[in-house]
C-alpha cells in the first residue's frame, strides 16, 4: 500500500474512531475511572465489541488472502509489567492513549499534560528498549497466536473468540444496561439515585 493511499485511509479510520468514541462517551474521565473501579462497564463493553468486530473482519480478510497476519512476540513478563503501569496511569489520569486527543477536543485542558506525558514516555521507552530486551522483560515464546496454541486454523479461532466475546457482552448488558450508565450519569457518578434533584448552579454575586 502506497503512502498516498495509507494516509487517507488512516485519517478516515481516525475520524470514524473519534466519532464513535465521542458518541460512546468512553473518553469521559469519569467513565474511564469508573471502569477501573469496576463501577461502570461502558468502556469494557465498547472495547470488547471492537475486539470481536476486529476478529471477524480480520478472519475474513485473512481467509480471502487480502491481508497477512503479523503477530507480535509473546513477552509475558513485559505484558504484565507494562499492563500494570498502563493501568495505574489510566486510573490516575482518567485517560488512556486512545482517548487523550478526544478529551483535548472536548475541552479537557488537563488532557494536554496527559498527552505530553505519554509522548515523553514513548520517547523514553524507545531509548530504553534495547536494554530492556536484555532483561527478563525481553524473554518470551516469540510470535505466536491463540490459534497456534489451540492447533486450529486462524479463522476458526478468531470466530470462536468473537462468539465468546459477544456472549460476554450480552451478559454484561443484561447485568448493567448501557442506558443506566450513560446520559445524566456520564460523569461516572453511577451511585446517584435517579430521583435526586440536580445540584443547584452557583452564580457568583456581582
TrEMBL record:
Its taxonomic placement starts with: Bacteria, Pseudomonadati, Pseudomonadota, Alphaproteobacteria, Hyphomicrobiales
Which species is listed as the source? Answer: Rhodoplanes azumiensis
Q: Which UniProt keywords apply?
A: Membrane, Transmembrane, Transmembrane helix
TM annotation in the entry:
6-21, 42-61, 73-96, 108-128, 154-175
Q: What is this protein called?
A: YeeE/YedE thiosulfate transporter family protein
| InterPro entries xrefs | Sulf_transp_TsuA/YedE
> Which residues does UniProt call coiled coil?
none
One of this protein's Pfam families, by short name?
Answer: Sulf_transp
Q: Does the keyword Nuclease apply?
A: no
Amino acid at each position: 500500500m502506497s503512502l498516498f493511499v495509507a494516509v487517507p485511509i488512516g485519517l478516515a479510520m481516525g475520524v470514524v474512531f473519534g466519532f464513535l468514541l465521542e458518541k460512546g462517551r468512553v473518553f469521559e474521565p469519569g467513565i474511564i475511572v469508573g471502569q477501573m473501579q469496576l463501577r461502570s462497564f461502558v468502556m469494557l463493553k465498547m472495547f470488547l465489541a471492537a475486539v470481536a468486530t476486529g476478529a471477524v473482519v480480520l478472519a475474513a480478510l485473512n481467509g480471502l488472502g487480502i491481508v497477512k497476519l503479523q503477530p507480535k512476540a509473546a513477552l509475558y513478563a513485559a505484558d504484565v509489567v507494562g499492563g500494570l503501569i498502563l493501568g495505574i496511569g489510566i486510573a490516575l489520569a482518567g485517560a488512556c492513549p486512545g482517548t487523550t486527543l478526544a478529551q483535548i477536543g472536548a475541552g479537557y485542558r488537563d488532557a494536554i499534560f496527559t498527552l505530553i506525558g505519554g509522548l515523553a514516555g514513548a520517547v523514553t521507552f524507545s531509548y530504553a528498549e534495547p536494554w530492556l530486551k536484555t532483561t527478563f522483560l525481553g524473554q518470551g515464546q516469540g510470535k505466536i497466536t491463540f490459534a497456534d496454541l489451540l492447533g486450529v486454523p486462524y479463522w476458526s479461532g478468531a470466530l470462536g473468540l468473537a462468539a465468546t466475546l459477544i456472549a460476554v457482552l450480552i451478559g454484561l448488558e443484561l447485568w448493567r444496561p448501557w442506558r443506566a450508565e450513560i446520559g445524566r450519569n456520564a460523569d461516572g457518578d453511577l451511585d446517584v439515585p435517579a430521583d435526586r434533584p440536580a445540584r443547584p448552579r452557583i452564580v457568583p454575586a456581582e
